[in-house]
Amino acid sequence: MTRKIALWAALFAAAVLLIVLGVANGGARDAMAKAVRICMECIGIG
Q1: Rg (CA), the chain
Q2: How far apart, in whole angstroms, are the C-alpha atoms of residue 13 and residue 28?
């Protein structure tokens, strides 16, 4: 049981680390810009 908890904790820590690195690298800004562009194309404004 303890080993299973340690595995989940390691996976969670890795996920948080990768999310933080992605945000720091500007990934969130790029994803938002692409989402806005796609949305504007679907609506027909852009």
Answers
A1: 17
A2: 19
**Is the CB of residue 4 less than 8 Å from the CB of residue 12?**
no
Cα–Cα distances in angstroms (integers) from residue 26 to residues 14, 22, 44, in the given order? 19, 6, 27
Q: Residues 2-45: pLDDT tens digits? A: 999 999 999 999 999 999 999 999 999 999 999 998 888 888 77
Q: Six-digit token pair at 44? A: 């027909």
> Is residue 46 within 8 Å of residue 37, measured between CB atoms?
yes
Q: Residue 23 corresponds to which amino acid?
A: V
The number of angstroms, rounded, from the C-alpha of 39 to the middle of its chain's C-alpha atoms is: 19
